Amino acid sequence: MVRIRLTRCGRRNKAYWRIGAFDSRTRRDGRPLEYLGSYDPHQEADEDKVSVKRERVEYWLSKGAQPTETVAKLLRKQGIEL
């Protein structure tokens, strides 16, 4: 099963997250099938915090990929139907 989830990047106390499509058996920071965007909670403006490749996210969702709860919340804020 394919999961759309976050993987941690950045340095200590200044983390940012990349959104990717992963096989469900892959570890958190393992190799993704494809990177779909990023989430940086340290940005000032809300619209700069999340960036996604909308058409690729919709492609993976159409193929049956399941987002995690956190990613689902981020995608809903971007206006992507789950």
Search tags:
single chain, 82 residues, alpha+beta, S16 Ribosomal Protein, Chain: A, 5-stranded mixed β-sheet, 3 helices, 5 strands, 38% strand, globular
Describe this structure in words.
The protein has helices spanning 46-49, 54-62, 69-77; strands at 2-11, 14-23, 34-39, 50-52, 66-67. With 82 residues, it is α+β, with helices and mostly antiparallel strands. It has one domain (2-77): S16 Ribosomal Protein, Chain: A (2-Layer Sandwich), CATH 3.30.1320. Strands 4-3-2-1-5 form a five-stranded mixed beta sheet. Strand 1 (2-11) and strand 2 form a beta hairpin. The longest helix is centred in the last third of the chain and has 9 residues, at 54-62. It starts with a strand and ends in a 5-residue tail after the last helix. The mean pLDDT is 92.
* Unreliable parts: none
Q: The CATH topology, please?
A: S16 Ribosomal Protein, Chain: A
Shape: globular
In oligomeric terms, what are we looking at?
single chain
Task: Estimate percent helicity.
Answer: 25-40%
State the name of the first-level CATH class: Alpha Beta
Q: Main sheet: which strands, in order across? A: 4-3-2-1-5
Helices and strands, in order, run as EEEHEHEH
Structural class: alpha+beta
How many separate structural domains?
A: 1
Secondary structure tally, helices: 3
Give a quick account of the main beta sheet: strands, pairing sense, barrel closure: 5 strands, mixed
Assigned CATH superfamily? Ribosomal protein S16
Strand fraction band? 35-45%
Give the termini separation.
16 Å
Task: State Rg.
Answer: 12 Å
What is the number of E strands? 5
CATH architecture: 2-Layer Sandwich
Kindly state the mean pLDDT as a whole number? 92
